[in-house]
Amino acid sequence: MIKTKKIAIIGCGNLGTSIANGLLSLESFDPKNLILTKRNTNSLSSFKEKGVQVITDNLYAAKEADIILLGVKPYNVSTILHEIKPSLDAKNQVIISLATGITLEEMYQEIDLEMVAFRAMPNIAADIQESVTCICHTKANEIQIELVKELFDSVGFTISIDESLMEAATVLGACGIAYVLRFIRAMIQGGIQIGFDAVTASRIVNQTVKGAAELMIQKNLHPEAAIDKVTTPKGCTIVGLNEMEHQGFSSAMVRGVIASYEKIEK
């Protein structure tokens, strides 16, 4: 169903670009059904070459779309909603905000109360159809919920949550990408120090991280259960793990997650 819908991404920055790439990777998705807007469209020229509509007119984009995604910064959501309100059709459209910290109640202060609005928090892995997207709503019917799930399932998989958890979802799912990448970078640096060149270290670490994630997913394991399979008595793994813990590895991760969450809450 999503392949036949017109989708507008208003304010197409890094996250919007990732979603656009994911959609264009779908078989039989017509690039003409995708509209991207940005004040400066130069960075979106590659999409235009693929047949995507790339424009600066938010009002036109909103009018033409069945599904409207707001990819703008949180402080711009109210302004954009006010701008596109004349184009919105409460009976035939769904609007989805990707902005951190902007509640559905705040959105409804700018749009028709009969409009179906969602909040969604995907991550940049949508670019390769591997995002996790948390969504919430208050007024959607089953058909609309399935439509939004299908949209985000096309770029990964989707979890419906209570709106009170959306900020926490942002930290784990969106900020979490950066946490994992920083961990990967550190492992690569360690690999270089013990003798590998950067390219080889990257290949080993990237596949190791991918394998660890797939192991958790496919075997439905708790991390400690898998760790136990690797740590032998007096072995090199447990020595390394203990040293990391002595240096505050786990507590630093937890503190980082909490710090990001507290920043959103403020």
Automatic annotation (TrEMBL):
Organism annotation: Algoriphagus sanaruensis
Localization annotation: Cytoplasm
NCBIfam families: proC (TIGR00112)
One GO CC term, this protein: cytoplasm
Pathway membership: Amino-acid biosynthesis; L-proline biosynthesis; L-proline from L-glutamate 5-semialdehyde: step 1/1
Gene: proC
Keyword Amino-acid biosynthesis: yes
Binding site for NADPH: N58
Protein name: Pyrroline-5-carboxylate reductase
Role this protein plays: Catalyzes the reduction of 1-pyrroline-5-carboxylate (PCA) to L-proline.
